Amino acid sequence: MRNHLALLPGWGFSVDVLEPLRQALLARNPHWHISVHRLPEVPAEHWLAALEQDVPADAWLLGWSLGGQLAQALAAQRGEHCPGVISLAASPSFVARADWPHGMPPATLQAFSEGLSQAPQATLKRFGLLCSQGAAEPRALARALQSHVLTECAALPAGLAHLAALDNRAALASYLGPQLYVLAGNDALVPAEVAADLLAILPDVEVQLIEDLSHALLLEQPELLAELIDVFVHEAADV
Fold this sequence. Notes:
Elements lengths: L3 E5 L10 H10 L4 E4 L10 H8 L5 E5 L1 H13 L6 E4 L17 H13 L1 H13 L5 H9 L8 H11 L3 H5 L5 E6 L9 H8 L4 E5 L6 H4 L1 H17 L1
Parallel strand pairs: 1-2, 1-3, 3-4, 4-5, 5-6
C-alpha cells in the first residue's frame, strides 16, 4: 500500500484548517506520510499543472470542498498512477447545471465573486457562516473557521473561477482507482442529495453521508473522518 496522503484545503482557508484531520489520521496510522498543499497562487488555467508539480506522484489525494474537486481532477489526470482519491464535502460540480440540479445557483456564486472584489472581508465572513450552518454549534464553529480564513491571497478569485467551471463527472467516470466521497447531511453548500446523484453516475464508488454535520465537517468530527479514511484506504489496498 502506498502510504502517502496529500491534503488540499477548501476555498478561502489556509492549510491550517486541515491540521485537526491530519493529527487524527496520524493518531490512527503513525506510518502514514501526510503532506498538506496550498492552493496555487497562479492563474486559474495553470492550477492543475501547478498541483501536478507540487503533489507527490504516488500520493493518495484527499481534499475538502474546492480541494476535493481539485483532488478529483488531479486523480483523473494521473489515471492509473494515482492510488485513490477522497473527497470531503465536495461534489464533481459545485454549481447547479441543467443535468446536475443539486448545486449552488451560478448567480449566487457570481454574487460571491462580486462581493470578493467589493467587500472581501465581509464576503469571507459570510462564506465561513455558510460553512458552519447546520452544525451542532454553528457560532463556535464559525469562530474556529475564522481563524483559518485567508485575508489576502491571490488564489481567491481563481478559486471561485474553478468552482464555477469545474465539472469532473466525465473525468471521474473514466478514473478506475478507488473513490470515496464523504458528505454532510446538513451541508449548506453541497446538498445531501448529491449522495444519490453521485451513485447514479458513479455506481462503483463509495459514498458516506454523515447526518447532522455541516460543510466544515473536518473540524466537527476529524476523528470520525480519520476512521472512515483509514478503513477505506486499507480495504482498497486489500482488493
